Amino acid sequence: MKMPTPDAAIVARRREIADHLQRLLAPESVIASDEERRVYESDGLTAYRQPPLIAVLPSSTAEVSAVLAYCQVEGIKIVPRGAGTSLSGGALPLADAITLGLGKLNRVLEIDLPNRTVTVQPGVTNLGITRAVEHAGFYYAPDPSSQIACTIGGNIAENSGGVHCLKYGLTTNNVLGLEFVLMNGEVVRLGGKHLDAGGYDLMGVLTGSEGLLGVVTEVTVRVLPKPSHLKAMMIGFPTSEQAGECVARVIAGGIIPAGMEMMDKPAIHAAEAFVHVGYPLDVGALLIIELDGPECEIDAYMVRIEAIAGECSAVSCRVSRSEAERLGFWAGRKAAFPAVGRISPDYYCMDGTIPRRRLAEVLARMEALSAQYGLKVANVFHAGDGNLHPLILYDANQPGELERCEEFGAEILKLCVEVGGVLTGEHGVGVEKRDLMPAMFDEHDLDHQMRLKCAFDPDHLLNPGKVFPQLRRCAELGRMHVHHGELPFPDLERF
Asked: Which cofactor does it need (predicted)?
């Protein structure tokens, strides 16, 4: 995995740049020492590390604007960073770039329950939004497994999902308004508390743009009333293929649960050893299905789901009898990633999405790939919307294992595309999937995406080296190049 060659002239100016930034921000908000910069050398994709040129921690939109405007003039790259929980290397620093941390922008600005909206700064955690409104019986629906730590700004960058995105949508379906700063320092507002706006969906463009277009400094989200009733089912199957078939049949039957998650045997055993919630250890796969709404509707759906599961050879079915038991069902699922970390020195978390009807097939082929590469896999994922999260277990201390793990992961993602899926569901492309983009997009597709990037950031200073498999200059895509104020062929008539 190669990153852009650092600009030696910029690296040589580190002290000068830091001194200037200390005039724009509080001195303690500029981190330039070797020891302190190392704190920011990686995000959640810890296989890759690189200390930044400098890290800065602005406290306001005005400070973000000042930093970006200065960097635009000086030609200094910027890597935006939220909580650093990205699993695709989206916040991986560059040796000649400033890491712009948004952790100090962490205030809840407004709670407007009559309009069912909350406005926050980007450093507020995902779970922090729910905690701000739960006293009034409301919550924020998207709930990534890292919700206790990940921030709403990072959720915007990656278009994060979570357990309940099956019924309530991903981040893009729950964001109403954004304030963001362009690379030249200009502050732009999109949307608001209203449901929708006319014109191009620029807010949709920003959501999932992985820090390549602008830096988000304020977010307005919708919050929902807590459902009147919630129940969860825990259904065991002999094999992952049978559990996958059950998922496809439930959705095909017109039942849309609030959440529908799947764990295979390695993940079940790891989670149970970690949280001790009573997961069955004699099954090959486990479905956790949550239903919400009126109690009579939930009960009716549960009868239908149990019947479908029986047709798919389910060997156990347990229904939560209390709120504590329901939360217990989810405790293992929410803790699955750290639980797997207890059974392997390292793991590589993948993220691809496939059509639900291909689940059984893909899981079987993934098992064959596991044998081929000699690396075990633990599967825990959003089964209801086909968003896979295979955890490839490896040991980075063993020569060649990381490289073999990367090759295995690439084959999984190519398989996802082959069966009609996509490279990412919610983790983003970052550096992890960057070089696989041609498996899904041809050159024309990538050029059109790059043109959009050029419209927001023509000098490619925002998060370079991410998403696009090779660097392109905007002039290479047909932009009119102006050199020293002169257009090419000035004698030609312009239309």
From this structure: FAD
Q: Which two tokens stand for residue 80?
A: 């935006």
Pairwise CA distance, residues 41 & 51, whole Å: 4
Considering the domain delimited by 230-432, tell me its CATH architecture. 3-Layer(aba) Sandwich (3.40)
Spatial distance between the Cα atoms of 112 and 193, rounded to a whole number of angstroms = 9
Token pair, residue 344, equals 């392997």
Cα distances from 457 to residues 69, 299, 426, in angstroms, run: 12, 52, 24
HEC per residue, 409-471: HHHHHHHHHHCCCECCCCCCCCCCCHHHHHHCCCHHHHHHHHHHHHHHCCCCCECCCCCCCCC
Q: How many CB atoms lie within 10 A of CB 260?
A: 27
- CATH code of the domain occupying 8-101: 3.30.43.10
Q: Which two tokens stand for residue 75?
A: 């030609």
| pTM for this predicted structure | 0.91
| Residue ranges of domains in the chain | 8-101, 108-225, 230-432, 435-477
Record the tokens describing residue 56, joined without a space: 């800065």
Segments of the chain scoring below 70 in pLDDT: 471-472, 475, 478-495
Report pLDDT for 83.
96
Residue 244 near residue 262, CB atoms below 8 Å: yes
CATH class assigned to 108-225: alpha beta
**Can you tell me the distance from the alpha carbon of 1 to that of 251, in angstroms, rounded to the nearest whole number?**
39
- The reply to whether domains 8-101 and 108-225 share a CATH topology is no
What lies within 8 Å, CB to CB, of 215 at 6+ separation is 64, 68, 78, 80, 100, 102, 180, 181, 462
Predicted local distance difference test score (pLDDT) of residue 470: 79
The CA-atom distances, in angstroms, between 251 and each of 259, 317, 334 are 12, 18, 23
Angle, CA of 45, 437 and 408, to the nearest 5°:
55
